[in-house]
Every structure is written in C-alpha cells, then in structure tokens.
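Summary for the steering committee. The consortium agreed at its last meeting that each partner would contribute one worked example illustrating the joint modelling workflow. Our contribution is presented below. We chose a case with several input lines so that the handling of multiple components could be demonstrated. No manual editing was applied between input and output; the record is shown as generated.
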Amino acid sequence: MTTPLLEVEDLRVRFHLRTGTVEAVRGVSFQLGRERLGIVGESGSGKSQTGRAILGLTPPPGEVTAKRLTFDGIDLLTASRRTLRHLRGGRISMVMQDPKYSLNPVMTIGEQIIEAYRAHAKSASRSEARDRALAMLEAVKMRNPARVFELYPHEVSGGMGQRAMIAMMLVTEPDLLIADEPTSALDVTVSMEVLRILDELVSERGMGLIFISHDLKLVSSFCDRVLVMYAGRVVEELEAKNLREAKHPYTQGLMRCLPTLADDVRPLPTLNRDPAWAL
Amino acid sequence: MMSARSRLSTATLLGLCKDPMLDIQKLKVVYGTGHLRVDAVKDVSFHVEAGAAYGLVGESGSGKSTVLRAICGLAPISAGQVFVDGKEVKEPRDKAFYRTVQMVFQDPYASLHPRHTVDRTLSEPLAIHGERDAEVRILQALREVGLGPSFRFRYPHQLSGGQRQRIAIARALILRPKVLLLDEPTSALDASVQAEILNLLDELRRKMGLTYILVSHDLAVVAHLCERLLVMRHGEGVEETTAVALRTGRASNAYTQELIEASRGFSRDTVKTASAAL
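What follows is the complete predicted structure of the assembly.
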C-alpha cells in the first residue's frame, strides 16, 4: 500500500470558553497504515481529543482545524454529514473506555449489533444481520454467543460488555479502529483477553488501529509504534520495541516512575515537568 | 536498595514478636437474603503487625474493598471477628476506633466535599473529636503531605487529582491514627502522580510508624508498598504471600501466577499459551 490509510497534519482542537480559548490538541501530525499505533499520555494531554477529532466527535464548542485530515483519500474536514455518517461506524469505528456507559442499556446486545450492521449494510436482511451478529460474538470469544445475544448490557460483566462493544464496532468490517482506553475499566487478566482478541482481529483483517491509553507499559507491549503526547503535542514518536531508548525526558520520566515487580526502587523517581516541554 | 529491604524485613520480624495491630478472623460479609444473597467475603483471615503494610490484591468483585469497608464499619460483619490493637471492634464503631483507624478512598474527585474548603474538610474530624489548636494542626497536616499553607482555603475543584489525594491523606492523618486503610489510593491518578503519592505514603509510614492495609489491583503497587499480601478471588483468600516472593516470581497458586504474568504487560507468546490452557 502506497498511500497511508489516515493522514493527519497539524491537527488542532480548540475550545472557546467564557474564560478564554483552550487548545487541547496543538498541531499533531502522523500517518497511519495498516498497523497498530499507540497514543500515550497523561490526563489532559489531548490523546482522546485527537481520536475524537478524527471521527468528527469533538463536542461543542470545540473547533477542529488541520492542514490535512484525510482517511483513504477522503478529506474528513470538508466531507458532507452524509459521507461522515457513512464512514463513522462503517469504515472507521471507535471502542470507548467503559462498556457500562457506551452500550445502550435498554436494548439487548444482539439487537445493538444488528442495528450497527444494518445502519451500514442497508440491503442486508434481518436474518442475515442476525447471523453476522452471532458470528461476530463468536469471533470475540463469547462462550455462548446465542445466550449473550439475548442479554441486556447490565446482565454481562465488564469484560463481556467490552467484547460485545468490540463485536459491534467490528461487525461492519472497518478499515480503521480507534480504541480509546479499551481496557482501563477492566481487570488485568480480563484486559489481556480483550487485547488478545483485538490483536487477532486486527492482524487477521488487516485493519489500522489507533490505541489510546495512559498505560505506557501496556501500549509498548501491544503496539508497533507509539506517539507520546504532552500538553497537546506529540513530544516523541518511537518504535514500541525501542521504548527503553526513549530520548525525551518526559517519556523517560513516565517509564521510570512506574513501580515494577522486577526491581525495588525507593523513593520512586518522580517527574519534574519542564515548562519547556509544553512550548 | 538492599539496606532498605533488610531494614523492612527486620521490622517485619520484630513485628511478628509483638501483638498484631490488626487481626481479622474468619471474616464474612453477606449482602441480601434468599436468591439475592451475595457472599462478598467468605472466611477471610489475616493479621497485620504494628508498623507493617499488608496488601489485598484481586480483580473487581473479589471482595478486597469489602474487607476494608467491613473493618471500618461501612459494610456489615456477618460472621467472624475484627480485632484492632488487641480489642474487638464494637458495633457501631465508637470515637476511639476512628481515632485509631482511618481510611483513604479511591477517587479523590468523589471523596472530598465539593463545596467545602480544604480548611473545613480538615477541621471537621478535629471538631468531632473535640480537638483544640485546629489551626496549628491543619497547617501541620498540610505540611506533612507536602502542601503549603496556601492550599488551606482552596476548594477541591481548584486542586489537581494528586493534590486532592494528598488532602484526603491529610484528612485521614489529622487525628493521628495508628492504622490507615487505603482503598486503591492511586488508581485514579496518572502514573507520575502515582509515584509521588506512593513515595509520600512510604515516607509517612516510616516517620509515624503507621500500619497500612492497601487494597489494589496493581501487583507492582502492592509489592512496592507492602511486605505481605493476600491474593483474593471470589471473596476468598487464595494465597498469602510476600512482596519478595512476587518479585522473584515465586507463587504457588496458579491464579497468582496469572496475575504476575498479566502485570508484565501484553505478550503475544504467553497469552497464547495461557488461552490454550483455558
């Protein structure tokens, strides 16, 4: 593939508030092929706003500008609402952090997956959509897909809810999946299982994945490439396997301040934020 | 580094000779009745020596937080006994209990009153217990958690997450308790802020000779702060082990081993073998 799937150049997200303008994302540029890209940063670094801006989900009064924001040659900033609706959930989809808040509480999981599928595959019959939904629930390793199909979100555990969410987001076979902290609300052992499913689906279907997380260790073990964000900017971009050789003091600081099982450092090194990083 | 560890282990050894500060015997917590009955904690026993730190680890729903809540009276004790400093706790807890045992909650965004200033938050426990010299005590408490007097009249929304958690710790410490119950004190915080709070907790324990019970889902955090820990699952204690054993990867229980594996991050090889075993 010669042209990248997603091209982002000088992306900016601003919020015009009564108290002044807050620039949450300040000139982020990257390209994404069919690979796993991680975006890491602490709260307020603009990582989630970057993901949302790509999908056009910036909440009002936010304003998004970019020199270039294209998905597979389509300019996302000038695209009509109709085109965007077609893309969102169809060719680009997003997995949110907490399945408790992002699944519809009054619809069964099966119905929700069918709805997502038929919104994009208009010609699909109900029974066809049903088969797809069941197949997808099986693909995310639900032990009893037919049973989960009939359940409401409150009847399943967090891990199952998140897998149902992934099933819903992948049933339309998107080219790009944006996962915003998909495992932060889950227990470690469950989150490993969810990641394994995500990993398989991404490599089998050749999707592009943007994995947004605050967890540097997790991202570096899961993704191919990592962008480290600080105060709305990308301060460092590196190959995930070379994370140990990070140059930027912020990335180094983030790596070091985590307690590990491997060695016992006390006091833990803390991060001295240099105001120059935010410039 | 080595000296720090040997000092801690001698402290633990010395502690063993003393009476335990906290002794939990066959604690049971049951919610609801009939088909709604949930056994949140089933026969959990452990003891913590004075000046030691004890960890409770497990996934959500394992009952680790419920154990803490049962100790300080926020959850019903259905069976079993809780001894603090040699005395069995009373129902309801009396003032003397809260002078000895205090709790720090998970989410500093939810645990501080949004319309109370730091000053009011910190003076409330003093007023309840009829303490004098509130002003001096408040300024001292702020200093202990590494905040200056300028924070005294701020509201929670004027503080960052880490500063809020420092205030919550100051609130817990202002009555000079002996035991601090810490319910996931750093899981709502960023990694760099987590390091600051862990350092603070480490230092306060050393300085004031506090006894900690730390609940966390993060093995590395527990191993950092505690000497001994209990791995919990489905309301039961699965394995009692030491931080040293965790660090060297020695765990007799398969579930503990799984947790250790998961805490190392995502791995394409080990995950596959783990799933094959399922």
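Residues 2-277 of chain B form a domain with the Rossmann fold fold (CATH 3.40.50.300). Strands of chain B lie at 20-31, 38-49, 53-57, 79-84, 87-88, 101-104, 179-183, 211-216, 228-233, 236-242.
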